[in-house]
């Protein structure tokens, strides 16, 4: 960890209005990965939706989330902290991708995150569709070994293959991650799961691996505090990733996404859930599946930006603890 530096401060809202200037995540300075030195947390976009099986558009997520994130202020009122006084945070720009090729893009993303980790940063990524989590996890597992994961989603994303044997889609990242040994299935909790299945057996594989699947019905029966206790018990104090698919929220709150499912979490519940993971042993996090073409008001990108802000606050506390 490096010393806190003025060069990682967001634009001052007192002098530069929050709607003004070039949009970066949380109004942070932009430092390309090959130039950044001394950052603790690297925020970047993965503008790619080549794993999408239905409505596309998540490739446009990072740019829209950056724009909406200019609404963030510096201090979290409930946690009582500012991440920018605890950690050096930077916008690393967007990871290189190829919109026409799946597996080469997964390699490009992994290589980019290798660079993030290699420079001592914790990654916070904005998708992109949910397949982008797989190469991020591959890179992080080289440092941390098989990780636990708190996964917010309407879908388990542990399906096997689509359309004649395609292994890599946004419905399969966590099956692949478990098969590859980058996630420890017994330390995965999936929260908000709902929606129809392709067959009665769809859930069997994940459950047989030992994943703790908390369907949305159970989430509402438990309530936020007890659901958080379940999540904490599953992941424990070992290295854990947080992956947040914005379709975990009800489409009333987050309509701009590719595969919406009704009956989901409210924005307030989502904020409370992420915030309540304070103190987790985090390795990194992502927010995926914001699809601006389906987000007429920009509200879904605001949800995405705000949940990334919640995750950034947790990460900064962890960085400060380890400094
Ligand atoms: Mn997903
Ligand atoms: Mn989903």
Characterization of the model:
The protein is 33% helix and 16% strand. The chain has one domain (6-322): Arginase, Chain A, CATH 3.40.800. Helix 3 packs across helix 4, helix 7 packs across helix 8 and helix 9 runs parallel beside helix 10. It has 323 residues and is of the alpha/beta class. The protein has helices at residues 61-69, 83-86, 103-118, 133-144, 173-179, 204-209, 216-222, 224-235, 267-275, 299-322, and strands at 41-46, 89-94, 122-127, 147-152, 183-193, 212-215, 240-245, 282-288. The protein starts with 40 loop residues before the first strand and ends with a helix. The chain has an 8-stranded parallel β-sheet with strand order 2-1-3-8-7-4-5-6, with helices on both faces. The protein contains 10 helices and 8 strands.
Descriptive key words:
Arginase, Chain A; alpha/beta; 323 residues; globular; 10 helices; binds manganese (II) ion; 8-stranded parallel sheet; 33% helix; single chain
The low-confidence parts are none
Order of helices and strands: EHHEHEHEHEHEHHEHEH
- Count the beta strands: 8
The span between the termini is 6 Å
Average pLDDT rating? 97
Oligomerization: single chain
Strand content: 15-25%
Largest sheet: 8 strands, parallel
